[in-house]
């Protein structure tokens, strides 16, 4: 009997095994490729968000260039273009992302200033929108679960926002933020409203001196007219010095935090600090110089020593030169306004003195900024700052100019009257003395040395720190993001 030939059967078996292995290999390869493609799309989806975030950073950097003269000018071509849409200025920029010289994505940024984004202090907020687009390699097809692909909203054949045809699959995501102006400075660069008290050298509080806070724009932290109410007082009356000396004696109370530059406060008696103590604090305080317009004022009034009226104009800032202000008896300085916000800037080349029943009266909607070269003494009936329905300290600013002879001027703020203002005098030695039954200070103080004695009360208006200082010469020193969200409807391509 002949033996059977098994070679044919073995060949058939080998072919069957090869076919099965090839099929398995193909299925594995297809699954791996699909999974790889799915990972690539998921990665592209995440990287497009990172690109959008980088676009927001680029937009914020350009905004910050608008408030600093030490960097390059903002909105430079060819990256940025400017224009106007519906009467609102906008800035648009496009940047390409390259890897080994190959474009792998784009960032588009659109910045505008909607008229609805203006706060009560007339400060403009900006809207910054950025779209990051990441190109995705591989075929233009969906991978994985259809719901997963729909969630990521990958553009395969057409841009999902503009509906224009595309040659490479891509993922696009858009972020919108609101940029808020912060840390306002005067035209000479000194910080306004960041603290209840900021001293270059030292701070002393004795007797029943009190520092606390309120918010003239928040009904929960003030009365119905935005006035200070003791029952609603806050604990943000922060007191800081760039020196190492802070003396708190007697029954002095600081309802807020304190800061010193290399030291601890000297506390005796029942003196109290309710907030934190920062022993390593320092804040840059720029000296105050005279405004640039003093050579070409709108009016020279000389010495103001009798009842005087200064009328503001609705068409611009009114500039006044005076050789001094001295009010006594029943004389007053009355600064009148209109039914719209008006501005007046007064340069006093001398001293300011107010005693007896003398007053400085400011009408509603008037923003007053005074520069003074000499001493300031307000011991009379104080300042009647009729800023709308309440006294808004940010509407009245006293800037103490740095003396050329190096001798610090003195500021004595006392008496029965109320003073609602921002005092920005980094070179002056300032004293607040409680007087009578109704004397109080509302606002913020910057000085060389600051002393509170007797029953002196300083009520810090927190709205100053929120940009409520309304002097037309005030400018922000920074923009911060106060709102962030991902916009699934808007795209900077649109």
List keywords for this structure.
single chain; mainly beta; 2 domains; eight-stranded parallel barrel; six-stranded antiparallel beta sheet
Overview of this protein structure:
It contains 2 helices and 30 strands. It has helices at 7-65, 146-152; strands spanning 80-85, 88-99, 102-112, 126-135, 170-185, 197-205, 210-214, 239-241, 245-248, 253-254, 258-259, 266-267, 272-273, 277-278, 299-304, 308-311, 317-327, 332-336, 342-348, 352-354, 359-362, 366-372, 376-378, 383-385, 396-400, 410-413, 418-433, 440-453, 457-461, 475-487. The protein folds into 2 domains: 13-183 and 478-487, no CATH class; 187-473, no CATH class. A hairpin with a 2-residue loop joins strand 1 and strand 2. The strands form 3 sheets. Strands 17-19-22-25-27-26-23-20 form an 8-stranded parallel barrel. Helices cover 13% and strands 40% of the residues. The termini are far apart. With 494 residues, it is mainly beta.
